[in-house]
């Protein structure tokens, strides 16, 4: 599986419209249109999982710059981020010595 970024489409574009357009060149496994958390309105970009790299390349070649309802699409392959480095934590040794004396509370 490879990931594809599609941006610049009109805000009223549906998942089905994008899948139909991309499916002419590649097999789409999943799609996620990014939406505003409060209004649920599309932000105009999406991420798709494509089953084969050749299909992704064909879709990018054919549709990058394509006009969809008066807006120019941008398509790019999503580069996978390298894995985060493993962080090691050092446990701090417990404090040794006599316990601290607590001051009595004042009643007011």
UniProtKB/TrEMBL annotation:
Domain of life the protein comes from: Bacteria
Domain RRM: 2-80
InterPro entries in the record: Euk_RNA-bind_prot (IPR050502), Nucleotide-bd_a/b_plait_sf (IPR012677), RBD_domain_sf (IPR035979), RRM_dom (IPR000504)
Region named Disordered: 88-108
Single annotated GO MF: mRNA binding
Compositionally biased tracts (Basic residues): 98-108
Keywords: RNA-binding
A Pfam family that the UniProt record links to this protein: RRM_1
Protein name (record): RNA-binding protein
């Amino acid at each position: 599986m490879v990931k594809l970024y599609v941006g610049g489409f009109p805000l009223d574009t549906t998942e089905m419209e994008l899948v139909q357009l991309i499916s002419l060149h590649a097999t789409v496994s999943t799609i996620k249109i990014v939406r505003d958390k409060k209004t649920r309105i599309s932000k105009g970009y999406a991420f798709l999982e494509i089953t084969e790299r050749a299909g992704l390349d064909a879709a990018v070649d054919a549709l990058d710059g394509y006009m969809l309802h008066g807006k120019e699409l941008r398509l790019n392959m999503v580069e996978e981020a390298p894995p985060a480095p493993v962080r090691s934590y050092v446990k701090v040794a417990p404090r040794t010595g006599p316990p601290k004396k607590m001051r009595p509370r004042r009643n007011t």
